[in-house]
Amino acid sequence: MIAQVFILSSKGDRLVYKDFRGDIGSDAVGLFYDKVTALTGDQPPVVMTHRNVHFVHVWQGGLYLVATTIAADSSPFAIIDFLNRLAALIKDYCGALSEKTVQMNFALIYELLDEMLDYGYVQSTSCDVLKNFIQTEALSSRPFSLLDLANVGLFGADTQQSKVAPSSAATRPLQGGKSEIFVDVIERMSVVMSTSGVLMKAEVEGEVKVKCFLPSCSEIRIGLNEDLSVGGSHLAGYGAAVRVDECSFHPAVRLDDFEAHRILRISPGQGEQSVMQYRLADRLPLAPPFRLFPAIEKDAAGRLLMFFKLRCDLPPKSSAVNVSASIRVPNGCISLSQELSSPDQSAELQPQNRAVVWKVPRFPGGTQLSAVFKLDIPALSSASMMEVGPVCLTFELPKVTASGLHVRFLRLVPTQHRGPTQRWVRYVTHSDSYAIRI
Amino acid sequence: MQEWANQLCENRQFGSKMTDSKYFTTTKKGEIFELKAELNSDKKEKKKEAVKKVIASMTVGKDVSALFPDVVNCMQTDNLELKKLVYLYLMNYAKSQPDMAIMAVNTFVKDCEDPNPLIRALAVRTMGCIRVDKITEYLCEPLRKCLKDEDPYVRKTAAVCVAKLHDINAQLVEDQGFLDTLKDLISDSNPMVVANAVAALSEIAESHPNSNLLDLNPQTINKLLTALNECTEWGQIFILDCLANYTPRDDRESQSICERVTPRLSHANSAVVLSAVKVLMKFMEMLPKDLDYYGTLLKKLAPPLVTLLSAEPELQYVALRNINLIVQRRPEILKHEMKVFFVKYNDPIYVKLEKLDIMIRLASQANIAQVLAELKEYATEVDVDFVRKAVRAIGRCAIKVEQSAERCVSTLLDLIQTKVNYVVQEAIVVIKDIFRKYPNKYESVIATLCENLDSLDEPEARAAMIWIVGEYAERIDNADELLESFLEGFHDESTQVQLQLLTAIVKLFLKKPTETQELVQQVLSLATQDSDNPDLRDRGYIYWRLLSTDPVAAKEVVLAEKPLISEETDLIEPTLLEELICHIGTLASVYHKPPSAFVEGSRGVQHKRLPGSAGSGESVESPDTGSAPVASEAPPAVIPSQDLLGDLLNLDLTPTTTTGPPPPSSAMQMGAMDLLGGGLDSLPPVPLRRDTPQSPQPPHQSPSPPDYSPTELGVDLGGSPAMTAGFGAPPTAGPPSFTAPVSGGLDDLFDLGGGVGMPMGAYVPPKTLWLPAMKAKGLEISGTFGRRAGVVQMEMTLTNKAMSVMTDFAIQFNRNSFGLAPAGPLQVLTPVSPNQSIEAVLPLNTVGPVMKMEPLNNLQVAVKNNIDVFYFSCQYPISMLFVEDGKMERQVFLATWKDIPNENESKFQLNDCHLNADAASSKLQGSNIFTIAKRTVEGQDMLYQSMKLTNGIWVLAELRAQAGNPNYTVSLRCRAPEVSQCVFQSYEAVLKN
C-alpha cells in the first residue's frame, strides 16, 4: 500500500504532494530529499528506510517521483512499476515530463493520482480507463516550434541520426493534433566475446512499442515475420528463421492470429504502450556487429603500444552511429598519443576510469578502422599487461534489429474517423553491454 | 518554485490594483485575502482558478486553512472539475478544522445520491479520506447504499471506503455490519470490485490476526482464481498476495491452484510475475517431489525470473534480491541460467555485487570453468569494491567445488602477480580459507605469498598472512624473522592482528622451540604486560600458563585440529529463509530481514511460514499463529548443502560439516585430544612428538612434562590398539559430562549426582531393543534417551553377537523434528570382542538440521562399524527436550493460555494413576514440567503447568485430579498443537513410573 506520493524537483522543491493514508507526516518529503542526496554511488537507491517509513523512488525527467509506505508487505516492484506508469501517463497527457509541465498541470496530476490510487491501493494505470474520469485539460508546455525538429529521436532514446519521424511527435500531448501511429522495434544487445571472435554470451532484449495519436481506432494489426519462431529452438532448423526465446505481450493484445500468421491485434488506447517484449539468448541470427583485432606490446622505451583493428560486420547498407570504444588500460597511465585513421574520430585518456575512449561518429557496415595508441606508464610491468582490456563498445544501429524481427505490415481497421493517418515503423538496436575481452 | 512565486506575485499585484491600496503590502494576509475574494467570485472560471491557486500553495506547504469556509462554499457546484479540486482541499484540511468539515457533510450525503456514478464514487471516496470522527457517523448510510450500488465503479470505491472507515473507527464498522457486506463483494460479478474487496479485507484482517475475516476456503479460493483472469494487473497483485496466505488442504488442491496461477508468470507487469512466483514457491512445498508436475513447475519458473532481469537497474536489483532467496531455497530452478547473472560492464555496482553473490550460489562442478573465467575478468575491473568481492568469490568457488580448487589457487596466484594492492590482500585472505579447507595440498604457494608481506596494510590481510606463517612455520625457513618483523609495531596493530600474531608465535615456538624462546617471551610480555585489551591479555596469560605448566597440553590446545569451514557462506538461516520466501516481492525480500525487524509496533507483523512438506497428512497450523512448531530456535549457523539422507547412505568417518569439530583424518590430528581426557587416561599424543623429534625444550621456569619418557615414546611409536582405532580421542575440550564415560560405574555416578541435586531425577525410560542382532550382522543395540544435568543423552548398550571383533564405531542421525544431532563422535574406545557388551553414552545437541517426522519424536539413526552400516529408527520421549528454564511467570501463563486459540487445545485421559496432586507435581518437576499454580475447587485439584521445548515452543497444561479417583484429565495448549500427543505420552510415562 502506498501511503504518499510526491514529485520533487531536482532541487528538492515539492511539485506535487498527496497523502493517501494519513499515517506519515509531510516531513517525509524533506527526509527523503536528505537521504537521496546523501546516497553514495554503491548504495542501492531503490528502497530507503527511515524509522519505519520506506521510500521508493524513480528518477525521470529530472524529477524524483517518490512513493512512501509503512506496510512491510508492500511490493517495491509494484511501486516502482506504478511510478513508472505515472511518469508515462504524465508524458502522455502533458507531452513531456519536466518540472515545468508538472507545475503547469498539477491539478491534472492530482486528479490522475486520485483515480489511480485509492487509500494507497492502485486502481488503474491504463490511459484508456482513466480518460473516462479525468476532467482537467492538459496544458502543453511549449508551442510547436520548428526548432524541435533538430532533436528528434525515438521516444526514450536520443538518437541524433534517425531523423525519420516528424518533429514533436514524441513530446506532444495526446489531445488534438494529427492522427498518427508509431510502431517502434527497439532492441538492446549484450555481448561478451573473446578476441578470437568466440561468443561467450549474447543476448538481445527487445520490445515492440506502439504510440498512438489516433482519435479513435478500433483495431490495428501488426504483422511480424512469418517465420518467427518462439521458444523451442529445436524447431528452428537450418533456415535463417527469426527466433525469440521468450516473449510476453501486453494484456490487451489479442493473439488469435499469432500462432498461425504472427499477427498481433490490438485496440490501442491513446498513448504509449509496450505491446510485446521478447528476449533471445546465445544463438543470434547474424554475426555480432563488431569485431576487434588487438595487438599489445611493450616498446623499447617502456611504453605500452596498442594496435587495434575494429571491423563492422553489419550489411554494407547499414551503418552504426555514435560508436564509442572504451579500452581499459593499466593503472598509472600518464599520457596517451594516438594515430587514428580519419579526422572525425577522437580518442582520449580518462585516468580516473583507467580507460582510453575512442569515438567514431559513423561506422558503415563492411568497413574496418584501425588505431594505434601509445601509453606512457612509469611503472609498467609484465603483470600490468594483464590489466589491459576488456574493450567495451557502445553504439546505435538505426534501422537494424539484431534479432531480425521486422514488421511486415501495419494495418488499421477503419473507423468513422476520416482523413489521412500517418503510419510510422521504426527500428533501432542499442548496445546494452558489448564487451570484447583481450 | 520560482514560477509559483511569480504567479502568486502577479496575482497579488493584479489584485492590489483592483482593491484597496492597504493590501499593497506583501504580507501573507494580503495574499489570502485576495484568494478569499476570488473564491467568492460569481464567475466559475475565476473560482476554479482561485481554488487551483489555493491548492498550489497547499502543495508548497503554505498554510491556507484560513480559507476553509470559502473553499467549502464552492463545493455546491455541478462542475466536476471544480468539485474535485475542492475535495482535494477538504481532504487535506478537514482534520485541522473538524467543526467546519461538518458543513460539508450535507453536500457529501447529497452527492452520494447523484445520478452520475462518478459523483457518487467521488463523494464516497472523499468522505472516507476525511478522518474526522464526527463525519463518520454521517458516512454510514451513504456507504451502505454505495456498497450495493448498481455501478461497479461506485461499488469498488465503497469497498475501499470500508477499510478507510475501519481504520478510523473499527467498532463502528463491525456494528454496522459492513464487514459482511464486504465479504459478499468477494463474489461480485465485477473483478475490480472483487480485487478491492480482497485488498480491504486483507488489510482489516491484519489488524485482527485471530479473526477469520478473510475466511479462505476452497469456494472462495475458486472465486478469487476466477476473478484473477479478468481483473486489472493491480487487482491481480492483491488477489495473488491474498492467495499466498492460504494453506491448501492437500497436494491435489495445491497443484490445482498452481496450475491456475502459472499463466500469470508470463504477465508483462513484473510485480504480477513476482507475486505469482511467491504463490508458486509456497505451494510447491506441498507437492511431492516425484510428481511430474513438480518438475514442470520448476521449469516454468525459470524464464519469468530471467525476464525480470531485463528491466531497469532499480527493478533488476529488486529482482536479484528475490532471486537470491529463491536460489537458496531451490537452486535447481536456475541452475542452467548461470549466464544471465554474468555481470555487464555497465551495470551499477549494486547490481554487480548482487549478481556476483548469485553466481557463487549457482556455481557447481558443471559450470565452474565458466564461472572462474568470468571472475578472473572481474578481478581486473576498475571498481575496487567489486574487484574485492570478485577475488573473494574465487576463494568461495574453491571451497565450494573441490575439483576447481587447484584452478582457483592458480588464478589467485596470477592475480597476486599483478601486485595491485587490494587484489593481493583479498587474495591472501581467501587463500587462508583454502588452506584450511584443503590442508596439506597447496602449501607450495606460501613462498609467493611471503613475497608480498610488505604490501599488506589491511588488518584482515595481515592477520591472514600471520596465520599462514604461524600455521606452516615448520615449512617456512625464516618464519621467525617474518613474525619478528610484525612484532616491532605490535601496539599499532589492530586487535585482530595482535591476537593472530600472539597465536602464530606460540605455534612457532611449539614447532621450533630452540630458536624462538626469546621471541615467544617477547610477545607474551607484550600481550600480557603492555596491553590494555582484555582479550589479548587473557589469551596471553592462557598461553603463558599452558607453556609453563604443560607444553604437551599446550601443543594439544594450540595446534589442535581446527573445525572445517563450511562450503556455503552467507547463507540465510533456514527458518528466516522460509519466512522470507513467504514475503517474496515485498520489502522484506529486498532487505533480507523479516518484517518484524523493520516494522515498528505490532501492526502488520506476522510470522509467515511455508506449509508442511508433502506427505505429512497432518493438518498444518494456520500461518498467522505464533512460531513455527518444528523450527528450532537455535538453528545451525550453516547448513550442509547436500541432502542428509544421502549422507546417511554414504556414511563415512566424517560427520557433516555442521556440527563440531571433525574426527581426526591425518596423523597430525590424532594428538589433538581433549585436555582433561588426556590427563585421565594416558593416551599419549604420539605423532606430535614424531613431528618434533628433538625433545621439546622446556620453556623458561617450567618443569619438564611428567609424562614424557623415552620408553613411552617407543611404545607409542609401535602403535597401540587405541591409536589404530583411529577414532579414539575427542578432538575438543568440553565439560566433563561430554567426555562420555566408558564404564558403567561412571554412569552410576551420574545418576547419584542427579539424585542428590534434585528431589527426583528426570524420567529415563528403560532401555529397549533398537537394533536386533539379526538385522545388523551380529551387532545388537538397545538403548534409551535421558536428560542428565541439562544434557540430552543417548544411552546405548552395544552387544557384539558376532564371531569377530567390532571396531570403528560411528553414528549419524537423519534430519528430525527437533534438530537432534550428536554433540560429538560416538565413543567406543576399545574394540568390542565377541559376546562383549559395551555401554556408550552419546551427548546430543539440538542444533542439527530440522525436518518434520512422523511421528514427531521419531529418530532415524545410522550406525557404522568395521563391518557395515546399519539403520534403525527409534522414538525418544519428548520430555527429554523440556528445558530447565521452562517455568513460566504466572501472568504470562494466564495471558498465553487465553491467547492460544481453543482449537489448539487437546484433552487426554490418564487412567490408573495413583498419585496425589503434590506427588505428581514433584515427579513431573523432575522432568522439567513445572507447576505454576495449584487450585482446588470442590475437591478437584487443578495443576497449571508449563514446559518449554529446546526449540522454544511452550506447552501449557492443566492437570485435573479428583481425590480418590485414579483418572486424571490433562489439557494441553500449545501454538504448535502437533506436539501435544507426544507431550501427553511423556506425562503418562513420567507419572506411571
TrEMBL record, chain A:
Superkingdom, taxonomy of origin: Eukaryota
UniProt keyword terms in alphabetical order: Coated pit, Endosome, Golgi apparatus, Membrane, Protein transport, Transport
Entries under SUPFAM superfamilies matching the protein: Second domain of Mu2 adaptin subunit (ap50) of ap2 adaptor (SSF49447), SNARE-like (SSF64356)
Topology class, membrane: Peripheral membrane protein
Membrane spanning residue stretches: none
Biological processes annotated in GO: intracellular protein transport; vesicle-mediated transport
One Pfam family hit: Clat_adaptor_s
InterPro entries named in the record: Adaptor_comp_med_subunit (IPR050431), AP2_Mu_C_sf (IPR036168), AP_mu_sigma_su (IPR022775), Clathrin_mu (IPR001392), Longin-like_dom_sf (IPR011012), MHD (IPR028565)
Location of the MHD domain: 178-437
A GO CC annotation given for this chain: Golgi apparatus
Principal subcellular localisation of the protein: other
PANTHER family: AP COMPLEX SUBUNIT MU (PTHR10529)
Family: Belongs to the adaptor complexes medium subunit family.
Protein name: AP-4 complex subunit mu-1
Organism annotation: Hippocampus comes
TrEMBL record, chain B:
Residue ranges constituting the Clathrin adaptor alpha/beta/gamma-adaptin appendage Ig-like subdomain domain according to the UniProt record: 763-873
Membrane topology: Peripheral membrane protein
Molecular function, one GO term: clathrin binding
SMART domains (UniProt xref): Alpha_adaptinC2, ARM, B2-adapt-app_C
InterPro entries for the chain: AP_beta (IPR026739), AP_complex_bsu_1_2_4 (IPR016342), ARM-like (IPR011989), ARM-type_fold (IPR016024), Armadillo (IPR000225), B-adaptin_app_sub_C (IPR015151), Clathrin/coatomer_adapt-like_N (IPR002553), Clathrin_a/b/g-adaptin_app_Ig (IPR008152)
Bias-annotated ranges (Low complexity): 721-740
Positions of region (Disordered): 598-635, 651-740
Primary site of residence: membrane
A GO-annotated cellular component: cytoplasmic vesicle
Listed GO biological process terms: detection of mechanical stimulus involved in sensory perception; endocytosis; hair cell differentiation; inner ear development; intracellular protein transport; neuromast development; regulation of protein localization to plasma membrane
UniProt keywords, alphabetically: Acetylation, Membrane, Protein transport, Transport
Pfam families: Adaptin_N, Alpha_adaptinC2, B2-adapt-app_C
Domain Beta-adaptin appendage C-terminal subdomain positions: 882-992
Domain of life assignment: Eukaryota
Compositionally biased spans, kind Pro residues: 695-708
Family as reported in the entry's similarity comment: Belongs to the adaptor complexes large subunit family.
Name of this chain's protein: AP complex subunit beta
Protein's organism: Hippocampus comes
